[in-house]
Amino acid sequence: MVTSLRSLRRVLVATIFVTSLFLLLTLYHHASQPSATPLRPDNSHVAAEAEKPQKPEDEVELVVASVRAEDTSWFHTYLPSWQKNIYVADDPGASLTVPMNKGREAMVYLTYMIDRYDSLPETVLFVHASRFAWHNDDPDYDALPTLQNFRLSYLRATGYVNLRCVWVIGCPAEIRPAEDAALKDNVEHIMAKHIYKEAFEELLPEISEMPEVVAVSCCSQFGVTRETIRSRPKADYIRYREWLLATPLDDALNGRVFEFAWHIIFGKEAVYCPSAAECYCNVFGLCDIPCKDDSCDGRYVLPPYSSLPKGWPLVGWEKEERNFTGPLLTPP
């Protein structure tokens, strides 16, 4: 009997030993295999980048009004993830072009709205081709930071946003349609004030009462949501383009009519001049700068000429060196 108990004990000990050994080997095997979900390295800097506002292709598109002489490569270099529609107005063979090179950027903008009416992205930014231009609302007249800092969330909330906050040229009372039409022999014809009333009545006949004052900061660069564009039927944009194609008005004038009509077309009041402080904060996130109603310190100064000097932004009008810190692939 004692012998039987001893034999049974040996069998139990051997069983436990074998089982333990098997479990240990199994655990070692699993530990030595690569994990199905590998641990990520410390990429905190990558995570920080990911937290920055992104502009995926289905969220925003750029519509660029250009001619062959303009260099649009900077859009591809500095905004690679943006969906870009670069129209070349004076090149009938371009992949994106217009029926006629007339009306400046207005013809491009209207052509995009007509062609893409049924497939618009959530938001659209309509811009000019040149990165550096006298009217860009930036201390260096640089369009790049304007686009990089633009707040899509504010555009979604308001439907239409001008890319220019400073009031100089356009606000607070650029055009007085009735008065300017009556004084058309004495007004500055390049600003289209004298023909605005007649053009307005032809383009927007549904607005029965002519605005006493029309004002918006220049210069036909803005953002619009899909819903805002579609608040008007496609037929309206076709009619606007037909007017542009048919009008005998000089090219500089017919485009300028739209420059001071886009905000009304998209549902804003005839006088659309938000304070500079409100605009810079809401549109670009620049909220802690000293401002007056019409401007903010260190943002925009009307240049002495309507063209930038050769060598800009590294060289100024007096051929002085400028401390430009933005990215430049090649010297201007």
Question: What is the H/E string?
Answer: HHEHEHEHHEHHEEHHHHEH
**Distance between the terminal alpha carbons, to the nearest Å?**
104 Å
- Quote the average pLDDT: 85
Count of DSSP-assigned helices: 13
Q: What integer value in Å does the Rg equal? A: 31 Å
- The fraction of residues assigned to DSSP E strands is 5-15%
Q: Helicity range of the residues?
A: 25-40%
CATH top-level class of one domain: Alpha Beta
Write the layout of secondary structure elements.
Blueprint: H1 2-32, H2 44-50, E1 60-66, H3 73-78, E2 83-88, H4 105-115, E3 123-128, H5 143-148, H6 152-158, E4 160-162, H7 177-182, H8 193-203, E5 215-216, E6 222-225, H9 226-229, H10 234-246, H11 251-259, H12 262-265, E7 271-272, H13 276-284
Parallel strand pairs: 1-2, 1-3, 5-7
Antiparallel strand pairs: 3-6, 4-6
Helix pairs in contact: 4-10
Short description:
Residues 35-57 are annotated as: Disordered. By secondary structure, the chain is of the alpha/beta class.
Describe this structure in words.
Helix 3 links the parallel strand 1 (60-66) and strand 2. By secondary structure, the protein is an alpha/beta fold. The protein is globular and about 50 Å long. Helix content is 37%, strand content 9%. Residues 1-8 and 21-55 have low confidence and may be disordered. It is built from 13 helices and seven strands. It has a domain at 53-169 and 217-284: Spore Coat Polysaccharide Biosynthesis Protein SpsA, Chain A. It has helices spanning 2-32, 44-50, 73-78, 105-115, 143-148, 152-158, 177-182, 193-203, 226-229, 234-246, 251-259, 262-265, 276-284; strands at residues 60-66, 83-88, 123-128, 160-162, 215-216, 222-225, 271-272. The strands form two sheets. It has a five-stranded mixed beta sheet, sandwiched between helices.
